[in-house]
Amino acid sequence: MVQILTYLGYFLVLLGAIFLFLGGLGIVRLPDIYSRLQAGTKASTLGAMSLILGVGILALRQPGHWNWFIKAIVIIIFIALSNPISSHALARGSYRHKIKPWTKEDIDAYKDYIEHEGIEKESEEIKNE
Amino acid sequence: MNTILTILIVVGAIILVGAAIFAVVKRDLILATVATSVISLILSIFYFILQAPDVALTEAAIGVALTTIIFIVTIRNTKRFEDD
Amino acid sequence: MALHFNLMDIIVLVIITLALILDFYRFLKGPLASDRVMAADTMTVSSAAMLVFLGLLFDRYIYLDIALIYAVLGFVGVIVVARYLEGGV
User: Fold this and answer.
1) Domain range for residue C51?
2) With CB atoms 3.0 to 4.6 Å apart as the test, which of A47, A59, A78, C28 could cross-link to A20 if both were Cys?
């Protein structure tokens, strides 16, 4: 039982560390802010969640360490709640700051969505800017 | 002290000094505020490794949220770029 | 303090340290303010994960609280900066 927990925990921890490294690599290599946001936030969220779950499983090897596992689950829930909010707010702020996406064609799907759905307040704000 | 912890402290010290020089050199005050947040993060890791969890807890809570909010609101009420 | 790390712990710590160095490179280089804020946020999340792992290695239960603080409060600064870029705090 202890051996199974050790293998599973170290597998999750190594997977999370590799995902954190891939998030850093995507931040360095990708061309513009929106794709960098996509790499840096999704991969980092998954990597941190996997690594913390692995730590919670590794702590279960010692008897009476259920509180480690429960606190690890609480940290995972808070990361899963808070990190996509910051990514979304930063992408929205960058769009309102009029930063153009890196595309070959001139496509702005978000503006088309706003005009098509008739969200008048937001489209007026964008036109006024 | 362990070898890997020593390597971690050396890399953290390089990041710390780099962020501090960045905060001094740049003219943009928003970037200086973000660099201050990074400095607080690395300092919290140092306190953690040196076995002082209460100081690390205080540094984390103050440096990551409170300082950033106060500085950004102050910059909002004045102006963003400093001039000579 | 007598800590005994096995090979897997050292590999994981080295990989996370490399991730921190890559994030800090983008923080120094990135042309826009949004790039730098995003790099700082990614550094926060990576550091929270590394602090949880170090807390397991040190075997102290209270060390998880620091990672909990970063998980709860880490997004506040990013939201304030994003609201500033959007036009109103």
Assistant:
1) 7-86
2) A47
The pLDDT tens digits for A66-125 are: 888 999 999 999 999 988 898 898 888 888 877 777 777 777 777 777 777 666 555 555
Beta strand spans in chain C (E): none
Contact present, A98 and C35 (Cβ < 8 Å): no
- For residue B28, the cross-strand partners are B81
A90 to C82: CB separation less than 8 angstroms, yes or no: yes
Taking a C-beta distance cutoff of 8 angstroms, is the pair A94, A38 a contact?
no
Residue C2 placed within a domain: no
Structural domain boundaries of chain A? 2-91, 98-129
Is C50 a member of any domain?
yes
Contacts of residue B41 in chain C, CB cutoff 8 Å? Answer: 40, 43-44, 47
State the angle between helix axes of B29-49 and B3-25 in degrees (0 to 180), rounded to the nearest 10.
160
Q: How many distinct structural domains can be found in chain C?
A: 1
Give the predicted TM-score (pTM) of the model: 0.88
- CA distance to partner chain B, nearest, from residue C66 (Å): 5
Distance from CA of C20 to the nearest CA of B (A): 9
Q: Tell whether the torsion through CA atoms of A102, A105, A106 and A107 is positive or negative.
A: negative
What six digits make up the tokens of A14? Answer: 């190594």
Query: Which residues in chain A are contacts of C67 at CB distance < 8 A?
Result: 52, 75
